[in-house]
Amino acid sequence: MGYAILSTWKMSFQGVCEASCLLKDHASAGDAAVRCIQCTEDNPAFVSVGYGGLPDENGRVFLDGGFMDGDTLKFGAVGALEGFRSPVAIARSLKDSNFNNFLVGKGAEAYAEAAGFEKRDNLTPESRARYLKDKGKTQNLFSYDGHDTICALALDENGSMCAGVSTSGLYLKKAGRLGDSPVIGSGFYADSAIGAAAATGVGEEIMKGVLSFRAVMYLRSGMTPMQAAETAVRELKEDLANRLGRTSSISLIVLGNDGTFGVGTTIEFPFAYASDTEPPTLYLANAGSDGRTVITRVEDPATVTQD
Ligand code: ASP
Q1: Cα–Cα distance between 164 and 187 in angstroms, integer?
Q2: For the chain, percent of residues with pLDDT exceeding 70
């Protein structure tokens, strides 16, 4: 059986390169997905994940992360976590107990410290300077500035799948705010017998559609990854427009258990993919006028400005 790795945003490209090398060397889907995400968590150039993540309304960086093992359906998640290097690694470690899989705030930090996870002050001088400039501005939930989640979906050569996510959430968010990212079913979902999905965009809207679980259920009903991703995003977009009179920034990646991928999006959305038959490749997805997604291969990454 082949392998595949699919991840959100241009910032994931290096991670996809490293994850695909691991998968080629027979690593597990979980190890590959976590490696993919940690590349971004450790890079301060990316301001919506890990080190360099943008702070909340009080100037503090709180991170969210999630992980799901598609073989067992076990999951772990952390929310509003301050002062640690890798929320996705902590989330992954939480999946193995029968209870207490989703920890937030002080409880999550106490667990991470006791379990020996690496600590780190994630506020960089650049993020602090940006905060001091923007402090007190009204947060516009419909802008896409300063938030993006790294999501990674992996399939290994044994047919095991997983989903992992990591983010600092919305820039200037309220203290204690959680988005969709650490919430199983909304931010991520994986079932090795079917496929996996993960979302990025305005979490308050993504949760209304329980978007990742919805896409995996569409896969189960026989849709291709592309159809599942397009349908889930189109339906949520239509519901938001009809009921609330608004559109929002939402993107969804879907990986089938055969390694094929699909993407649904309401905005221009870069993502990266690699498999046993395709080298790491950066793609650009755009919303088509008919609810379809138009995907183009990016020949020159420098032409993509959105991280
Ligand atoms: N979904 C994330 C959140 O709402 C942000 C993002 O992916 O852009 O926290």
Answers
A1: 9
A2: 97
